[in-house]
Write a structure and sequence with these properties.
The structure holds 2 protein chains of 2 kinds. Chain A is of the alpha+beta class. Chain A has 2 domains: about 1-110, Dimeric alpha+beta barrel (Alpha-Beta Plaits); about 120-140. Chain A has 4 helices and 6 strands, in the order E-H-H-E-E-E-E-H-E-H. Chain A has helices at about 10-15, 20-35, 85-95, 120-140, and strands at about 1-10, 40-45, 55-60, 60-65, 75-85, 100-110. In chain A, strands 2-5-1-6 form a 4-stranded antiparallel sheet, covered by helices on one side. A two-stranded antiparallel sheet of chain A has the order 3-4. Chain A is globular, with a radius of gyration of 18 Å. The mean pLDDT of chain A is about 90. Chain B is of the alpha+beta class. Chain B has one domain: Alpha-Beta Plaits (2-Layer Sandwich), CATH 3.30.70.1060. In chain B, about 25% of the residues lie in helices and about 30% in strands. Chain B contains 4 helices and 6 strands. The model of chain B has no long low-confidence stretch (mean pLDDT about 90). The chains are: A alpha+beta, B alpha+beta.
Chain lengths: ~140, ~140
Amino acid sequence: MRFLVIVKASKDSEAGKMPSTELLTAMGKYNEELVKAGVMLAGEGLAPSSKGARVKFDGAKRTVTDGPFAETKELVAGYWVWKVKSKQEAVDWLKRAPFDGGEEVEIRQIFEMEDFGQEMTPELRKQEASQMKRAEENRKQK
Amino acid sequence: MRFMMLVIPKGYESAGPGTTPDPELVKKMMKYNESLQKAGVLLALDGLHPPSMGARVTFSAGKPKVTDGPFAEAKEVVGGYWMIQVKSKAEAVEWASRAPMGDNEIVEVRQVQEFGDFPPEIQKSLEGFSEMQNAPKK
């Protein structure tokens, strides 16, 4: 099963403050372990919310608000996608992450095809599989 | 440049374990996904199980503390995301505006940090990271 591991924003990340070389080195080592164990599928950092925007939906109306967004506690600063055998395994991996300054990280299971019932018709399943394949091709081209 | 479009569905913070999306919404989403795909902007996409099936780990002085979901204090949570490759933030916002979301739902558009965005001394520490991101496949 796959999990999205969401690193929450902090005042520093929102201010665009870069992590120290020590932390980056520790993170590089940790990422290396994740890769070697076949756990890490993807990982990215996001620019502070000041560079982003929110689109709110109301019927046909769209309200666009440029960042920053004040509620830093629920904002995302970065993420990994991990492939593990259980939620516990994800928790165990996360406990070893080199965070130490009050960071909060959220572990969320990703929906897989088998999580859907009959509503996901064979046609929709085929469409989804084809989209995934072509999305992968887009990634390779970047 | 790459952007992550984070879906913040209304009320998902209190959805029970095993909740799956409305079948009609799935059909609309698939159509929207198809439009992203055809435009060649779609890089990745995933839907997330409700937070009631997840966990949070907080780190204080190097000590991890695990809390299982649901998270009582959360006012909004991520329900899924698209990763897209576009030419500008405006283009990303344009795509976000076309998503089949319901009333009072939000799509947050966030730029992904690329290697070139970092100063040289950070780039040095990040050596090999791009390979890590692309190496393993399920």
